[in-house]
Amino acid sequence: MHLTLLAFDWALLLEKAVLILIIISVSLLVAMYETWGERKVAAFMQDRRGPNRAGPGGILQPLADGLKLFMKEEIVPLSSSRFLFVLGPGLAMLTAMMTSAVVPWSSHFHLWGRDISMQIADVNIGILYIFGVVSMGVYGIMIGGWASNNKFSLLAAIRGASQIISYELAMGLSIIALLMISGSLSLRTIVEQQQAHYYYVLVQPLGFLIFLICAFAECNRTPFDLSEAESELNMGYHLEYSSMKLGFYLFAEYVNMFVSSAVMATLYWGGYDIPFVNDATLAQHIGQNPVAILQIVSLFAKIIIFIFFFMWVRWTIPRFRYDQLMKLGWHVLIPLALFNMLATGAIVLWRG
Q1: pTM for the complete prediction?
Q2: Cα–Cα dist 342/325, whole Å
Q3: Which helix (H) or strand (E) holds 263?
Q4: DSSP annotation string for 94-138
């Protein structure tokens, strides 16, 4: 009995290790091709071709860009705090990768007589975990800006920290309204409830809109990219960075965009649920493994739609002034989130 339990633990450990490697690899691959996709979307909206030299249709351009960052000279300013200067981009990348640990990518695969969950950690406080990790992400910006010993980098880091802290409040309040309906902090439970009833965007449209706007601010995406305002701050908090340290900061933004899209799809759009299909009934007809693959495809289709929306907004809306950004967060989004939370609470009490 003891040996059987020990073997099962090792199998579970191996299963999670492989899943972690797959998710990290997919996140980095998606982040690479988000850069290509963004340049193609920008080119389409500006009536030009975009990358078209490296490979057919420029499909190898992300590999060329990555190689360029690796090959560039690495410069560390003499007046910088060297340890923190190295820690900043590493922390930004680490927190970006950690967020995906609680996202369920599909139901499960049935292989070798075992049900293999497509979720690294199905914890019952999944949403709290996401907020905790996202809150740590601001340290990557602050440490990088401060350690550079450059006034423009420090100013950009302070801007970024103030922005992220401000918009986290409205995002958290919008999630509280969702939790009143779901009664659970587990992302898998939230997806299963949407599979059984309806997508939560139908009953929380205002909460979803607030969460979406705050996701733009959390990812430092236009029109909320005040911490990277090239025309104002001469590149922003990563001004002094070069080579792959700069690449880590840039990649972290795209990984955050990918994971934010996955979280929004999970919380409000049914996650891996296949629209207009009963997944359990479909599994009885074609088998669990094909359904699990279709669920992954369904989730990634929703993620790609959100990523395209991120890119579309960047090349459509101009950047806010800093006072406009803070006014939107404190005077508009937080009151709206409070109203949405109170209204949701009243409806839940009335129904109960």
Answers
A1: 0.92
A2: 25
A3: helix 243-268
A4: HHHHHGGGG---SSEEEETTEEEES-S---TTHHHHHHHHHHHHH
